[in-house]
Fold each of these.
Amino acid sequence: MLVKVLLSGGHAAAMRVLDQSGVVPAFLDHADLRITRAQFVAAYKAVAAELDDEMHGLWSRPIRSGTLKYLMLSLLDAANLAIALNRFAHFWNLLLDDYHLSFAREAGRIGIVLEPRAPGTRVNLLGHELLLKLVHGVVSWLLGKEVPLESVEFSFARPQHADDYVFLFPGPVGFGHEHSAVWFAVSYGASAFRRSRVDLWPFLRRAPEDWAFTTVNEGLLSTKVRRHLAADDAPTADVADVARALGMSVRTLTRKLEDEGRPFRTIRDDLRRDMAVHLLTQSRASIDSIATLVGFANTAAFSRAFKVWMQRSPTSYRKGRKSVESL
């Protein structure tokens, strides 16, 4: 998100964004470092304000501040969700030069499809991710519940961060499709909703909090494994322990996790990493204590693993956080 800020406002502007969001400056050098949900929301708002672009310069034309407000106002009096989705597509077509949005209905599903306006249009991964996530977030807010997805389809190849999509989209995600699209069960099209301007203002103040995040996809076995590991005092269980708890053989568990593209060790390491980042940034627990809390037998092993995950030692990561807070 900071690339456009660096290009338009320079290093000082990027530092302002980091300062306002409490993100360590190391993120400028390491794109795969992890931040908390609160930091993401703060950084999203700071970048949008710095650029006066609610979509962070991801499209050829800036999406100026206030766009989300008027989009949502245009949807409030729609008679049902199908009409709201059609309006959503028409609204964005007034703004985007890169892509055309279509409301589509086919084979028991409805959705929004992104089609490039010209052959060879560059595919911006983050732009597609955010726009389809916005569709899902708006639909869920209108209906007052998180709406499951029939599927999400992307026109690009599977990216390195694809494993994180489980935290963004509550449904199957596929890659390499002709067009990017987000799909809902057709039955939702006739759903009526009652949302007022009074309801809308908290949504806008909190944005992107209420549309950018979703609960973890409960239907995935990898989600169940992660939740089982997270329920322990420390995620130390091995694959045999988890298989037994879930009532299946190690072989079956391993095969099913591989089919989802989430090996057991990856799930456990990702959980430990996320726990470690949270504890280092949100608590005063010692490094030794954090090592124990995230399931390591000793601090040395934890430090080695953390350096692999974050390219920094736990101590350096925490110091970087404190240096931001003191600016």
Note: Residues 3-51 form one domain.
Amino acid sequence: MLTLKERLNTRMLTKISVLSVLAFLIMYIEVPLWFTPEFLKIDLSDIPALIGAFALGPMAGVIIEFVKNILHLVIKGTVTMGVGELANFLIGSVLVYTASYIYHKNRTFKNAALGMIIGTIMMTIVASLSNYYFLIPFYAKLFGAPINAFVEMGAKVNKFVADYKTFILFAIVPFNLLKGTVVSLATIVLYKKISPILHK
């Protein structure tokens, strides 16, 4: 017979698993943007992770981010040799952990909103720095492509992109600010409806 602690752990794992699968399925829906090159598309798979982080704790959100990307690698496969999934995990985790950590300090709507605002800002900073110093150079090296190829793709759809720094400033930065805002607004709408189920 399972102890109370074991039953709670089983329930937690079940909830995390369901949210992870849901996040993985949402990853299939990608929306291109008018100011970013084709390889930068918005998906809303951070919504289940953020809801899970608010309901179950910051680390639950990080685990959901991790599992959804592992599922994506194993089931759908990758065209980026894992770099895209690594970026999705890293950047998504910053948003969900930061937002839920602030929320769990004092569980009010004001703190939730503050957490999502700061989480979006932190996500944008981490996305910008990681893309500039690591992700794009690493991706370029893996595929034997010059970094300038990414700049050229950005310049075709965004007149403000002229070099690598402006690519980060006018493509990566607004992309992540928009994504964080959309994910946050959707979470605000959905959380009240879903949280009673997660708190059972």
Note: The beta strands are 31-32, 41-42.
